[in-house]
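for the record, two folds in this file. i put them one after another cuz i was lazy. first one right below, seq on top, structure tokens after. the second one comes after a little note so u can tell where it starts
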Amino acid sequence: MSTKHFVTNIDKLVVDALEALTLTNPDVVYYKADKVIAKKSHDPQTHVAVISGGGAGHEPAHAAFVGEGMLTAAASGWIFASPSVAQIERAILAVAGPKGVLLIIKNYTGDIFHFSLAAEKARSRGIPAEVVVVGDDVAVGRTKSGKVGRRGLAGTVLVHKVAGAVAARPESTLGEVVAAAKEVTENLVSVGVSLNHVHIPGRKIEAENIMAEDEAELGLGIHNEKGCIRLKPIPSLPDLVKTMLDQMINKTDADRAYVDFATADNVVLMVNNLGGLSPLELGAITNEVVGQLTSRGLRPTRLFSGTYMTSLDGPGFSITLLRASDTVLTYLDAPTKAVGFTPGSVVTADSPSRVIVESIAQKSGHAHTNGHTNGHTNGHTNGHSKPTILDPAKFISCVKLACEKVIAAEPQITQYDTVVGDGDCGYTIRRAAEAVLSFVTFSSENISPTVSTIQDLAETVENNMDGTSGAIFSIFLHALATSVSHFDTLLDENDWGRAAADALNTLYAATPARPGDRTLVDALAPFVDTLASGKGIKKAALAGRKGAEGTKGMNASLGRAVYVDAKGYDRVPDPGAVGIAELVEGLAGL
């Protein structure tokens, strides 16, 4: 639960956020006293008005959905609180006329009371008014929800979109707009999950709302209320998505089988960010949901993935499914100028064919991504026609030990990099080590005694190690392969030292990093220099470790560490240098 906020005055937070919409959408006006956003260019004489609203904290819903082709106006309450009748009246009077107005609300008691009363008062003024209530939640089920019915969740946004598209046609009547909205609500299911509850700025933290690190909550609403199931431990994403989809489309679940998708002409999918997920994580979740739906024979024809209806910065997501007719699809595809709406995409049967699985390494014959090969290691062809320069058994033994040491040290390296970097160094080095370990393990019977093995090793690292560290390792290893290719006999430690010295000079031509700059070179250079001087690999490894430890207290001259608080330099050594120290100690058998 995030408890730190830039704005802690929640009243100012709401009114200022609404005012910002006048800066991002030139076609809206803001009735500040009533917290109402309305479409400026709407003509109530020729078009039906579509109004929605609810508490703040669900942005971009509802105010950012005001715009051509979607909502005509939206009334905002305070955070998680329904707008008052007076506010809703202000919205109605701003945009409604003889063509009438449709009020779309989620199934929450406050919204129903306030919007229903506002609709009745509109009718008394001679304005035709109708109310459509959206209840798309399936988590609670029929038995528990009883007379209250299903809660309204992110599926409401699809109702906004369809009703708004119908209302954008001047020939549409209020009855037609209502019918279109109801068609969506009657074929809609949603369920949400979150890793924690949210903290409302300026309010006390409620201990009972704080979930443990190994807990998630399934079936929560969008107002910070508890879900129906506390999950402990947190299931894997595939298992979690399966559970959610089962609740949505399992026809044998009489308590939740609200919509039959078996004979659906079209299935529309919305994967909604509850506010706190990164686009990266939401993308992975979307891919999993689409994959599982497809495996169930329900490939979606439209996909909406993004942030549509939030619960402040809730660290969770919701899934919405809509059984849609071709006409509804047309309205979902219709353009809108609402600034908060992310348009959907068409999902076709050939979508998987647009994913190219083959890597450039596989295409060129050097298929060592994640260390696996196609049954051989000689991507550089006919390795045994080249001179024997290494002992395969000894090479495998040394490399395995080096990789195992690096993998074991990953948590410590990550901790160091969290202090003085961006926290990815340990994982980056570990991923490369795992790929190399896989390479020598699965190819142990085919390891060539020639330079081809060093070339394959370099490519394995290149294909599996990202960032600056990956570039440095790759340059050094490719240069090492070039250097050892000049030998025509089995290399001893002194030969490896001379080859490594040549590789280090090649690396120096590509980077300004030198000993004393607080980089991995602080460990690599003393290792190479000591090995090249003929003192043996064990002393060279000790020199590398000493160089790594020497970076503690050293100011950074290169890399992201330059930008962090210098106090961290005194607490930990350079993470990349520590990774090198672990690696070379493994090679030396230390």
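(here's the note) second protein begins now
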Amino acid sequence: MADDQSNDKCVGSSLVASATLVTGNVSTLAVNSRPRKAARKWRGPLERLMELPLEVLYLVIESLELRDVLNLARIDKAFRNMLMSRRARPFWQAAIANTPGLPSCPPNMEEPQYAHLLFDNMCHGCGRGNTSKILFHWGVRYCKECLPPQRELAHLFKEVLQETGVAKPLYVTMDGQVHIREMEEFRQKWEALEGDGPGRKKLAEDNAKQVVLRRTHASTCNQWKANLGYARRAENKSIRAARLAAIKERLRGEGYTKELQVIGDAILAKQSFVNKPTPLTDRSWHAIRTDAIRFLEQEHTVKIRRVREGVVRPNVVMFLKVYDEWLQAWDPNWYDPGDLKAIHRMRPADFLVMDEVRLVVDAPAGCIVFPGNFEYARPKLLDMVVRWYAQQREALNDVFRDAYPALPQDTEPIGLAICSFDCSSPRCGGKFIHYPDILDHRCSMLRSTVTIKGSGYVNVIEESMARLSRPLPWQAQHVRVNERMVDHICELVRACGYDPLYASWQELDAQGQRMTCASCAAATDQETDLEVFDWRRAIHHQAEFMHRDRPCKWTMLPEEVAAKVRAFEARLREVPSRPWRQPFYRCKMKKSCWDVYDYDDLQAHARDAHGIREELQDEHYELCWHWHKTGNDLLHGTCVRFTRAGGVKVSSRYITVNDVQEGEEETAEVQDGDAKAGKLDEETCEEDMELDASAIFDQWISSDVFGECRGS
């Protein structure tokens, strides 16, 4: 009875052992207590393969190549049990023989292992896929991270050489790498035979013979793999050539024969929809048809453009010299006697796009153009200038009316004080520019945005000007209207006592009013400098970060003080100014947002692209600065201080006298006799402004606007 129980225990233990999968030093029990799912039934062409007679099935398997037999052994358990048994070894040997040029299986590997090494791209170290490096001398695939490091084997090899006379019992690469598993196995066997000289010698000699055989077999396998790659590349090349021919035939059927002749096969073959090692079918053509036609049209446009540019550019360079002669011959009294910069606002690109100059520059390829040919257009110079100004006025009027439709129809927008324009580039410092100065603004940052749009004459001129680092033709699309600032400028004009729908900028310039920001002055005491602006500088103050959301409350200076401020500014304009910063914003709401915006455009971008309608927070954007170095246009205004002693001090807080490069903020006090040196005697200044400053200051401080702002 005890013997039966012990036998049952032995049988049970053997069943468990047979159901155990051993991997390295880790044993995993393969027995699962859950019920097994029913095997999935085959579907498709191989659905009834197992129903074939065995003789027919064996003949089919014997005709397969090694890769196919490996895949067949992995279909299901039936084929696996049949092909992974030792009785199926003839099938594997026949498959190796059926594979063209494949060397026979090495003696240290089984045929399934050999097939797995050749056709599975799994790393034998970490299991990572897509591993193409096969180390035939070791019989493994390793990724870059799993390659064995260099080992110091001089001590072991020296010991083997001294006892057996064998130099290298292990395979060592030219880089000094050795397979760690083989080295440990050899070391264990070597140490186990300690004291057995003949045994150690036989072990070393056998390993050395295996190294020679494996080196020869590895060389043959590497050659087979290289030949296989050559054959595959040749096959893919022929498939790509056939695909290219088929796509060209389809495009000819679409009516693109002329475009194919211009482009050529070399450029077309490099495109992703052509450069594929797959035959072209009706379905694949339907998928790539749109891309192929779009590429053909764009490339044809580029080719035509390049040819046209090669003809036009020498004539453009020739016209640049003629343009300098036109500037010298221009009489300021021809167009507008009061405007000395009439023709200087126009650039060579503006003349090049006019019909009179284009007739010469865009001559046919066979014509030879000389500088004298441009004399045809010189008598029409005044007509071209008049026509250009009329076109730009009309374009700017349309731009402003579209942005601000509340204007009366009988008013020309560009003559109004509220009609100001910004450069379309957020990084550019061209802000709040009125007509006609806006025509003189040619942003250099727009040249970097010139792209190939077409093969037309204007497109060729734009690219030629960009390549020559010359301004582009002036276009209304290069400017825009800041609608928020227009509303703020309206409040500023009302504070000056004018109707913003009819007041012109000439009227405000002639009046010469000076003002301070009551919103800023409310936070100051009576002995602190108060910044003073004319109406143009007040616009830039309104655009500062702290005032952009609501209009400033402006307080007008008395005429006596304003007159002294204007005299001070007149003397101060010759002093150089410090560089100033222009803010712009970069979106941080999504990593793919790389564009920059001003604040209004950033709000529109957040609303349209990210659905954010509430007020933007600091985490939504990054504030950046672009430095501008300009002349002294007094963008930062003048400062005035009223003292209880009865004097008024006028100074400029931001004018740099000593070092413009370092941008140090210093006070430049300018005296009548020493204006260029930038020094103003304080006592003389107070004597110049001997008027009842105390009374003026008290009256100004007690005004309603200032009092309301001070109370808030």
